[in-house]
Design a protein that fits this description.
single chain; 614 residues; 22% strand; six-stranded antiparallel beta sheet; alpha/beta; eight-stranded antiparallel beta sheet; binds 5-amino-5-deoxy-1-O-phosphono-D-mannitol; 24 strands; 37% helix
């Protein structure tokens, strides 16, 4: 999970590359580098530990001329983040440079074999093995760089998206992919290469998504050519991007995370638009209509996902069971793929992923397909690997999410899962007419309910100052809001580095209650729903032990206001949609606590936006 950019054309490549790296920095930000072929025919490689802005400072007085180049922003897997392990990696001959996103699993064996041939390695990375292997094949067989790349890729096991420049072909850029994304942007007399479309969108809307085992030959003088690693020609399928540059900028907010939190009235509107009408209770999901029989006859549904998407999956389980009356299991994709699951053509697997690139989710999908299950995707990034690997699906359409902490994607995922449950419940006849009408009305009202909820921002900012001291936090919720508690805890820990645990409120007395003292704040998600009475007693149990309570309550709930230390009031919302609303104050709480602690909320330490490695 690193970011790759490549450029060939008439502009100064360095400018395009660095701008592109900034866009891809969400994918990794522990080191960055560029390689350009200068007009004098020199391969200039500059790289440094740190963020892209550090690279820019490093390159300040360097020769960055040239109209062809490649660049990389890294999230370390093999070898610690330092200057040497940073990409691009050069072959010892100094004529080939390569950037890589992914993991070469057999790099140890390959490295030993190359070392036996007398080759010396400078870095600890798997990537250097690949570039050395390309150079070795080229030198020993006398073949072209393209053939050497092709041969090398046939020898490696693992995942890769790569971009290569070499001095023997200064007018050609080579890109290739297997299980890691790579998009080609087709401009006028210029071509772009990137891990996703964000570095490309301001130059062209014409893109080609490379498929697994394909190699792109991007030449200054000839049209784009794509071949497979078996040397067969591939079809070039040009798509039109639906993305705007403004979506990729902070739009006046100090951080992408805050911008994305505040975008939610619009993103949820985009998510439901065309799927529910302005009136009535019709829900139209083409993926369900086209696969009606699959959903009618499904024996069970297995939801696979990671992180925040897994939390959305837990809510999806409840929705699909309650409304669609289908048994549902929710699995961490990383566990599921190694669990030898019992699956066949009677099962539906729903894969949820914002990025559509998460390696474990992708592997779970492949396994499910091999076993005959029908795989349905709930993704955000259009054209992503998961979106393309699934049999059908529904996009959440919340626009690019750049902050590492997922916010608007979570609410979009839950919204799609609610619509999915309604669509399935309708075709199965398992949903009461009035209930359906109420939930659809609730979906329609979500944007305005979110707008009201966002008014809590100032109160939460003030409140956050009280809690920066905390070393631990407990989040409690019940029913639909237990996953919201897990999500609230994840938000806090990933951006503020405060340890936080989410728990079903009633489970607290079976262990975590022992943790409660004056030092442990508890966030209780307690809207006015069926569990209201029960959660009040959970709050009392915390208070009786000296703990402080921040409660998310429905507006006007005087009972909880009396006993909690702080209350955050949200509007009334149908119970099955409530996590969409309750998660918003929790996003804001995590954001403001992290800001008060001086943390980098958009690029928290050790994390990256999409996890394309195991
Ligand atoms: O792109 P995905 O939804 O597949 O990503 C899954 C997780 O990596 C992601 O949700 C992660 O947990 C977020 N950083 C949480 O905010």
């Amino acid at each position: 999970m690193c970011g790759i950019v490549g450029y060939i054309g008439t502009r100064t490549a360095y400018d395009v590359l660095v701008k592109g790296l900034h866009r891809l920095e969400y994918r990794g930000y522990d080191s960055a580098g560029v390689a350009m072929i200068s007009p004098e025919g020199k391969l200039n490689v500059y790289k440094t530990q740190g963020k892209v802005e550090d690279l820019e400072r490093f390159c300040d007085s360097k020769d960055t001329a040239g109209t062809i180049g490649i660049a990389h922003t890294r999230w370390a897997t093999h070898g610690e983040p330092n200057d040497i392990n940073a990409h691009p990696h050069m072959a010892p001959g100094g004529r080939i440079a390569l950037v890589h996103n992914g993991t070469i699993e057999n790099y140890g064996v390959l490295r030993e074999a190359l070392e036996r041939e007398g080759r010396v390695f400078r870095s600890e990375t798997d990537t250097e093995v690949l570039v050395q292997l390309i150079e070795y094949i080229k030198e020993t067989s006398g073949c072209s760089t393209l053939d050497a790349v092709r041969e090398a890729l046939r020898e490696v096991v693992g995942a890769y998206a790569i971009a290569v420049v070499d001095l023997d072909n200064p007018g050609t850029l080579i890109g290739a992919r297997k299980s890691s994304p790579l998009v080609i942007g087709l401009g006028e007399e210029e071509t772009f290469l990137a891990s996703d479309a964000t570095p490309i969108v301001e130059y062209t809307d014409k893109v080609v998504y490379l498929n697994d085992d394909e190699i792109a030959i991007i030449s200054r003088s000839e049209p784009l050519k794509i071949i497979t690693t078996d040397n067969q020609p591939s079809q070039i399928d040009i798509k039109t991007l639906r993305m705007s540059v403004s979506e990729l900028e902070k739009g006046g907010y100090p951080h992408f995370m805050l911008k994305e939190i505040f975008e939610q009235p619009r993103t949820i509107n985009d998510c439901v638009r065309g799927r529910i009408g302005n009136s009535g209770s019709q829900v139209t999901l083409s993926g369900v209509i086209e696969n009606k029989d699959k959903f009618l006859n499904a024996r069970r549904i297995v939801i696979v996902a990671c992180g925040t998407s897994w939390h959305a999956g837990l809510i999806g389980k409840r929705l699909l069971q309650e409304i669609g009356r289908i048994p549902v299991e929710v699995e961490y994709a990383s566990e599921f793929r190694y669990s030898n699951p019992i699956l066949d053509e009677r099962d539906i697997v729903i894969a949820i992923s914002q990025s559509g690139e998460t390696a474990d989710t992708l592997a779970a999908i492949q396994m499910a397909k091999e076993r005959g299950a029908f795989v349905y995707g709930v993704c955000n990034v259009v054209g992503s690997s998961i979106a393309r690997a699934t049999d059908s699906g529904t996009y959440i359409h919340v626009g690019p999410e750049i902050g590492v902490a997922s916010t608007k994607a979570f609410t979009g995922q839950v919204t799609v899962l609610a619509m999915l449950a309604l669509a399935v419940g309708s075709i199965k006849g398992t949903i009461d007419k009035q209930v359906k009408a109420d939930v659809v009305k609730g979906l329609r009202n979500l944007p305005s309910l979110i707008t009201k909820t966002l008014k809590l921002n100032d109160q939460i900012e003030r409140l956050s100052a009280t809690y920066t001291y905390a070393k631990n936090f407990l989040y409690l919720g019940r029913g639909y809001n237990f996953p919201a508690a897990l999500e609230g805890a994840l938000k806090l820990k990933e951006i503020s580095y405060i340890h936080a645990e989410g728990y079903p409120a009633a489970e607290m007395k079976h262990g975590p209650i022992a943790l409660i003292d004056r030092e442990l704040p508890t966030v209780v998600i307690a809207p006015d729903d069926e569990m209201h009475e029960k959660i009040i007693s959970n709050i009392q149990q915390v208070k009786a032990r000296g703990g402080s309570v921040i409660a998310v309550i429905t507006k006007g709930d005087e009972t909880i206001r009396e006993i909690a230390d702080h209350v955050l009031e949200i509007p009334q919302v149908p119970e099955c949609l409530s996590a969409i609303i309750t998660s918003i104050p929790l996003q804001l709480l995590a954001y403001h606590i992290a800001i008060k602690k001086g943390c980098d909320v958009d690029m928290p330490r050790n994390l990256a936006k999409s996890v394309t490695v195991e």
